[in-house]
Amino acid sequence: MRFVLYNIRYATGTGWDYHIPFPFWGCFRKTEKNFKDISSFLMKLNPDIVGLVESDGGSYRQNGKSQPKEMASQIGGMPIFCCKYYPESFITKTPILKSQGNAVVTKIPPVSHKVRYLSYGVKRALLEVEYEDFVLYLVHLSLGRKARTKQLEELAERCMSSKKPVILAGDCNTFGGEDELFPLIERVGLKNANSDLMPTYPSSSPRMLLDFVLYSPEIKVDNLFIPKVTFSDHLPLVCDFSL
After folding, report:
1. Number of domain units in the chain
2. What pTM does this model have?
3. In terms of Cα–Cα distance, which of 28, 146, 199 is closest to 97?
4. With b meaning 16 or more CB within 10 Å and e meaning fewer, what string describes 187-203?
5. Which pLDDT belongs to residue 37?
6. Deepest in the core among 70, 87, 143, 227, taking most CB within 10 A?
7. Domain residues for 87?
8. What's 214's domain CATH number?
9. How confident is the model at residue 178 (pLDDT cuts 50, 70, 90)?
């Protein structure tokens, strides 16, 4: 099976002008053209499962269309989307922000899927997709080190409670690299698909490893590569695995 993890930055793009005329101005850009390019790129990879971090559930940027649904219509499969903020947060009532989330587009029919919420941080959503032989957890962790540490502790408990092998993937915002994940990796017994620790951010000149695909030892990773594309500020991870 082929799994692709990609923080697409809501398809708002990147470049020197992203922060002009003021910081993060680019997040208000219209996204349809860039998103079509991202979808075409992913379609060529022929993935079985795509984990989309920072996808748009239907704001004005995408003319009210859900990016996961649009992608599913192009590459096939079913879309599963969740807003990444805690439902009771004021953020979920704010235009644009309420449409910001994470998604799984899957050609493999899942047994079930649900959204869980971590106890700490602004970005709390944990998207859980259960398949016949494994469970996929998709996350986007907090920018704050203290909150992120607590989130990782909760993720370790969640992974250990799974009765099936797990894949834990997402943008972990680990500015300290893999060392931040070591307690979770050691406690749960996971492996890092990116064993060479190739950086994933920023896409134009990668220096930091922020995006991870971790997996249980029952899963065999046959290949992992990181295409050098600049549709987003992150690079995608393409992971071929088997059970």
Report:
1. 1
2. 0.97
3. 28
4. ebebebbbeeeebbbbb
5. 97
6. 70
7. 2-242
8. 3.60.10.10
9. very high
